[in-house]
Amino acid sequence: MTSSSPRITISESDYARLSGLAEATAKSNSSVAEYLMSELDRATIKPDRLVKPTTVKMGSTLTYETDHGESRTVTLVFPVDADISLGKISILTPIGAALIGLRVGQSIIWTTPTGDKHRLTITATSTEQETPVQAAQ
After folding, report:
1. Residue 132: is its pLDDT beyond 80?
2. Is the pLDDT of residue 128 over 60?
3. Contact call for residues 13 and 86 (beta carbons, < 8 A)
């Protein structure tokens, strides 16, 4: 496992909403808000239309594989929509903040609340916001 972080891309709209969310929660959830801000600071920000469909965005359903070979499919959501029993992971969790902006094939090391480090590799993505457009075609 390496400690280097992969390059990430975040859409302008996600950047604006997530920056505000991180600032608003900095006092109550400081460690995750700080981590999210550090991810936003290192991201390349692009117009929404230029962010590839293989990039994890807010609302993306993605599949990742752990360093133990386990595969899991989750949806990255805002805290109000989080429900771990439905696979909806909040952006304001360490794993949620680690996933934003990654592309299929990229890996990241994230630290669990107990301090363990794990490698996650993105194997697939789809975005819920794209579904109505696809259905209309």
Report:
1. no
2. no
3. no
Contacts of 45 (CB under 8 A, 6+ apart): 9, 10, 11, 12, 15
Is 9-127 CATH 3.10.50.30? yes
pTM score of the predicted model: 0.84
97 contact partners, CB below 8 Å, separation of at least 6:
32, 35, 36, 39, 91
Report the alpha-carbon distance of residue 127 to residue 11 in Å, rounded.
13
Residue 37 CA to residue 66 CA, distance in Å, equals 24
Name residues whose C-beta falls within 8 Å of residue 66's C-beta, 6 or more positions apart in sequence.
Answer: 72, 118, 119, 120
Residues with Cβ within 8 Å of residue 38, at least 6 apart in sequence? none
Cα–Cα distances in Å, from 41 out to 65, 121, 136? Answer: 26, 21, 36
Q: How far apart are CA 84 and CA 30, in angstroms?
A: 21
> Residue 3: helix, strand or coil by DSSP?
coil
Residue type, 52: K
Tokens 């934003």 correspond to 100
